[in-house]
Amino acid sequence: MKSIRTKSVMIQNLCVPCFNHCRYCLLSWDGKTVGTEWERSVRLAERYIQELKEKRPELTVSFSFGYSMEHPELRKAIQTLRRLGSPMAEFLQCDGLAMRDEEQCRALMRLFREERIRNLNFTVYGLKDYHDRFAGRRGDFDFLFRMMRAAREVGIPFRTGIPITRENIKDADELTGILKRAGSAAITLFIPHEEGRGKSLNPIRLRQEDLSFLSSASLRMFNRNLYRTEADWLRSPPGDMDTGRMILLSLRADTIDLYEKRDALSVLEETEALDEAYYAAFPGFEELAKEYGDYAGDSLYRIRDLHHHYRSLFAAEHCLSVYDVTDERLSGSRRYY
Ligand code: SF4
Description:
The protein is an alpha/beta fold. The chain is built from twelve helices and ten strands. The chain has helices spanning 38-55, 74-83, 102-114, 128-135, 140-154, 172-182, 216-219, 230-235, 256-261, 264-280, 285-292, 303-317; strands spanning 6-16, 60-67, 91-93, 119-123, 158-163, 186-190, 228-229, 244-250, 300-301, 332-336. Strands 2-1-8-10 form a four-stranded mixed β-sheet, covered by helices on one side. It has a four-stranded parallel β-sheet with strand order 3-4-5-6, covered by helices on one side. Helix 1 links the parallel strand 1 (6-16) and strand 2. Helix 3 packs across helix 5 and helix 11 packs across helix 12. The protein binds iron/sulfur cluster.
């Protein structure tokens, strides 16, 4: 079997609550944080980063936190991220923050500017009512636009993403117009993954024919090379599926004691072994496709999502019980495609 090269390590602490309850949450946010005490996680991350720099210098190692950015000491948290060399110290995802009025949004953006945040990202799920329902919070749509206005005032550029499904595609043109007028530097249309609660969106996965609802301007915001129909992928599967992996070390209330007693390299190698055991428990893509593939399927997928979809069907059919490295609340991995 081909061995997969680890390219990066992300150490995360999911200790900060989110104020949304999105329908497709990758992290299956249910109101309870799974992370550990902040200072403890920072101390451990610092040690692990140092040890991995010495033992595995080829790796990029970073530290992040979630679920949302609503850290009780946000300024200090950003400074810590910067000290640890985290990309999150420059680029923030702004969904799921606590509700703020205009003035509070301005204060937040001033703080971001003082802390040298260079880019922001907002995910918008549809027009106002649809977005609020999808995000599980009334007023969230207006709140995002208050933050966008405040970001413009202080001069922080922002980008936006729209997850598109059969349900909201008809509103995509109108929404991209609204986002352009709000000053979004770039808008990306993407198809939501099937991981975490994203599985619930499977019945409304976009199909080829739905793209006819998009104007040519909106179509340019959608990467047709990345998203192809199932039939297209099965006709010409990509040669090299797994080109590398990111190892995720999740510092959780239930693992921190153990991780603190160990060195970073042994934790990393153990997690790499979990990744390999997980993928070895499944047949390869082509075999899965023979069993579960729809050779006339016109639903649109990224290859990574289609592979995940087949693995889920296989796991359900065979009642497979294997440690799930794709559950991003746990230590695990993300393979690149
Ligand atoms: S904002 Fe992000 S973390 Fe929060 S519920 Fe939505 S998808 Fe999950």
